[in-house]
Amino acid sequence: MEFRCLSTTLSDAGALPEAWQGDSLAVGLFSDPNHPLWAQITALLGPKLPALLEQCRFKGKPGDSLTVQQLETRPSTVILVGLGEAAGFDSAALRNAAASCAKAAASAGSRSLALALPWQGLDPQAAAATMAEAVRLGLYVDLRFRSEHEAKPVPELVTLLGLPEPSQLPLQSIDAVCAGVELARQLVAAPPNLLTPGDMASTAATIATDFGLDLKVLERSDCEALGMGAYLAVAQGSELPPKFIHLTYRPSEAATRRVALVGKGLTFDSGGYNLKVAGSQIDKMKYDMGGSAAVLGALRAIAQIRPAGVEVHAIVASCENMISGGAVHPGDILTASNGKTIEINNTDAEGRLTLADALVYAAKLELDAIVDLATLTGACVIALGEEIAGLWSSSDGLAAALVAAAEAGDEALWRMPLRSSYKEGIKSQLADLKNTGPRPGGSITAALFLQDFVPKELAWAHLDIAGTVWSEKARGQDPAGATGFGVRTLVNWISAGAPS
Ligand code: BES
Ligand code: MN
Ligand code: ZN
Question: Which residues does 402 contact at the CB level (< 8 Å), separation at least 6?
Fold first, then answer.
């Protein structure tokens, strides 16, 4: 798929720019019928348009979409999508509109599509990138597991109208970000029999070879030598060997910032002896490696973009949480790699155990900041739903930078409290701490547990993406299923110099 920009718009007479010769045109319309775009599109489509819009109940609301196909005219396909009220139109609305245009165009069999969408109030470069990403990510399909995989054709050329010329689309970084999101979606959607900890390590190895990154994979014995008792306790019930992945991007010139991205990498979470019951989404727990998928997707994008000045470490303590005669018991006490002892009062709170050793390992790398991403708690899904990830941070600067990075990619984060009095909930009678507290505030005690494994002076943030990593229904540019959440936030944060 190729992207281009043309500065010309649909003129007041509704004529199409001469320079554009494609077959399909998609136009966004605000719900206010007095908006000048309505006159332009009526001039283009002729006086019968109002009756057709009436018949199809197209009112310009978000989600409204109408495709008109005529044989003799150019363009032969005209797609109208609703944008809602002009006052509330923002980057996220533009992204959704561009994705619906792309989907309608693909359904209509378009090969060459022009998008005429407004971007008032937004930076033109950013608006162009948003539209291009939405088109590509909106047309993503995953046919890997079908016996017949014939993909529907998608537009080969996409022209964005009305952007200032010479508008240099940042094509390289758009492609890199989309490829990163696509990789994360593929990893999250892959079933647990076909995506094991070993496959996570192979994925990291492929990124390392393709882009010249350094990769270290620690085997079980290496992790034992480092005293990673928390991580290995989770892994011990599985037939599959754990893989501790450390992938590093180094900029071409000297790095002035060094950061780690730590991702939860449970390729399946049965709950262990605190087995997940009906209604607890056990059949979805392949996506419990969503944090590590975001981290690997981001590293792939970063390795392609090659931002200057920032060294980025991706760290994933990958394993499965299973049941067997050798599995960890509820009640076991183990020692993490920083020497802290943990009483496991619930084997289903396994993510924080794997992250504890991953965070201790990361902190030894002399970093400026650590960001971890994890499908950590059902409590976060209850609090924030499917569209917003929880953010906990010891640093106001890092929290603000991550919120800004997320916003720039139309991903939503909401800062949550690291209230230290709640640590009371994870005190153990016997060990230094236990791995779960009371149900109320469960995502907060989970974050407080992680904080115990990060040095106080190090800027650290935790993103609980349990709700956002998967979507029951297709929404905007995201298909039903794996969303690839987190990649754009991480890439934007690193590209901004990873401020904290
Ligand atoms: N992977 C789950 C969290 C999860 C639940 C993600 C639902 C997505 C949807 C995690 O390992 C887990 O099981 N957490 C427990 C913690 C509890 C035992 C304190 C939970 O949230 O129920
Ligand atoms: Mn669990
Ligand atoms: Zn889990």
Answer: 371, 391, 393, 413, 461, 463, 489, 493
Q: pLDDT digit string (tens) for 326-364?
A: 999 999 999 999 999 999 999 999 999 999 999 999 999
Proportion of the chain above pLDDT 90, given as a percent: 88
Ligand 1 contact, 281 CB (< 6 A): yes
Confidence bin at 164 (pLDDT 50/70/90): confident
For ligand 1, what atom is nearest to the CA of residue 276? 13
pLDDT in tens, 199-255: 999 999 999 999 999 999 999 999 999 999 999 999 999 999 999 999 999 999 999
Distance in angstroms (rounded) separating the CA atoms of residues 409 and 389: 14
> How many whole angstroms separate alpha carbon 27 and alpha carbon 296?
36
Q: Which residue of 289, 352, 377, 434 sits with most ligand 1 atoms within 8 Å of its CB, as the best mutation to test the pocket? A: 377
Q: Quick check: 494 pLDDT over 70?
A: yes
Query: Three-class SS string for the chain?
Result: CEEEEECCCCCCCCCCCCCCCCCEEEEEEECCCCCHHHHHHHHHHCCCHHHHHHHCCCCCCCCCEEEEECCCCCCCEEEEEEEECHHHCCHHHHHHHHHHHHHHHHHCCCCEEEEECCCCCCCHHHHHHHHHHHHHHHCCCCCCCCCCCCCCCCCCEEEEECCCCCCCCCHHHHHHHHHHHHHHHHHHHCCCCCCCHHHHHHHHHHHHHHHCCEEEEECHHHHHHCCCHHHHHHHCCCCCCCEEEEEEECCCCCCCEEEEEEEEEEEEECCCCCCCCCCCCHHHHHHHHHHHHHHHHHHHHHHHHCCCCEEEEEEEEEEEECCCCCCCCCCCEEECCCCCEEECCCCCCCHHHHHHHHHHHHHCCCCCEEEEEECCCHHHHHHHCCCEEEEEECCHHHHHHHHHHHHHCCCEEEECCCCHHHHHHHCCCCCCEECCCCCCCHHHHHHHHHHCCCCCCCEEEEEECCCCCEECCCECCECCEECCCCHHHHHHHHHCCCCC
Question: Among all residues, which ones are annotated catalytic?
Answer: 276, 352
Query: Which pLDDT score, from 0 to 100, does residue 195 have?
Result: 98
Token readout for 120 is 């008032």
Q: How far is the CA of 270 from the centre of ligand 2 (A)?
A: 7
pLDDT digits (tens, 9 = 90+) for 410-424: 999 999 999 999 999
